[in-house]
Specification:
transmembrane, mainly alpha, flat, transmembrane helix, membrane, 217 residues, 82% helix, 9 helices, single chain
C-alpha cells in the first residue's frame, strides 16, 4: 500500500512557485533558494551561536533564568531581524550563482515585446552564445542592486575575491586563444595569474586579521 508523504506548507509553496515558472527557470529557481538559504545560515548562525554561548555563561554565573529570557525574547529576534533586513550577502551570493538564467530570460522576453524585434532578438541570441558575458552582466547587476537595497552590507572582500576569481577564469580562457598568445609574453601566462591571486589573497587575509570591520558580518 502506497502512503503519500505529507508536505509542510513551505514545501507546497515552493513547489507551486516552481511549477508556475517556465521549464528553463525551474532548476535555477531551486538553485537560488539553496544559495540564499546556505548563505543566510552561514552569516546568521555564527552570531546566534555566539549569543547562545554568552547566555549560557551568564546563566551559570548568575544562576537565574533572566539571561535565558533575554536571549529568547530580545537577542534572537534582534539577530533574525538584522539578518533579514540588513544582511544583503545572501542576496549577493544568490545573484552570483543563479541570476544568469533569469537575466537572459528577461532579455528574451523584452526582445519579443520590443518594436525593434529583429535587432533585439539578435542581441539576446548573441548573448546566449556568450555565457561568460551574460554571467558578468547578471552578476554586475546583482551587485549593484544589493548595494542599493542593502547599503550597510559589508561585501568588499567577498566582492574582491569573486572579481579576482572571475578575472582569473577569463584570463585562463583567453590564454587558450592563439591570437592572445601571439601578442602577450610567455611569462605572463606562466606566472601572471599566480601573482595576482597571491596578492588578492594577501589583501583579503590582511583585512581578516587586522581590519575585520571591513569584512561582511
Amino acid at each position: 500500500m502506497h502512503v503519500k508523504r505529507k508536505t509542510i506548507p513551505i514545501q507546497q509553496t515552493v513547489s507551486d512557485i516552481k511549477h508556475r515558472l517556465p521549464p528553463s527557470l525551474q532548476h535555477p529557481f531551486l538553485t537560488a533558494l539553496r544559495a540564499y538559504g546556505l548563505t543566510w545560515m552561514l552569516t546568521t548562525l555564527p552570531g546566534l551561536v555566539g549569543a547562545l554561548i554568552k547566555m549560557a555563561i551568564k546563566s551559570s554565573k548568575r544562576r537565574s533564568f533572566a539571561p535565558l529570557r533575554q536571549f529568547i525574547f530580545q537577542t534572537v529576534p534582534r539577530i533574525f531581524h538584522a539578518s533579514v533586513v540588513h544582511n544583503g550577502l545572501p542576496w549577493l551570493m544568490t545573484g552570483a550563482i543563479a541570476s544568469t538564467p533569469f537575466f537572459t530570460y528577461a532579455l528574451e522576453r523584452l526582445a519579443s515585446r520590443s518594436r525593434q524585434e529583429k535587432k533585439d532578438k539578435r542581441f539576446s541570441r548573441w548573448l546566449s552564445h556568450h555565457p561568460m558575458l551574460a554571467r558578468t552582466m547578471s552578476i554586475g547587476l546583482s551587485m549593484w542592486l544589493v548595494r542599493r537595497v542593502f547599503p550597510k552590507t559589508k561585501t568588499l572582500e567577498w566582492t574582491f575575491f569573486a572579481l579576482v576569481r572571475a578575472s582569473d577564469i577569463t584570463a585562463s580562457r583567453a590564454a587558450d586563444n592563439p591570437i592572445v598568445r601571439r601578442y602577450l609574453p610567455k611569462w605572463l601566462f606562466d606566472y601572471g595569474s599566480v601573482v595576482v591571486f597571491t596578492l588578492a589573497c594577501t589583501e583579503i587575509m590582511f583585512a581578516w586579521f587586522y581590519a575585520p570591520h571591513r569584512l561582511p558580518r
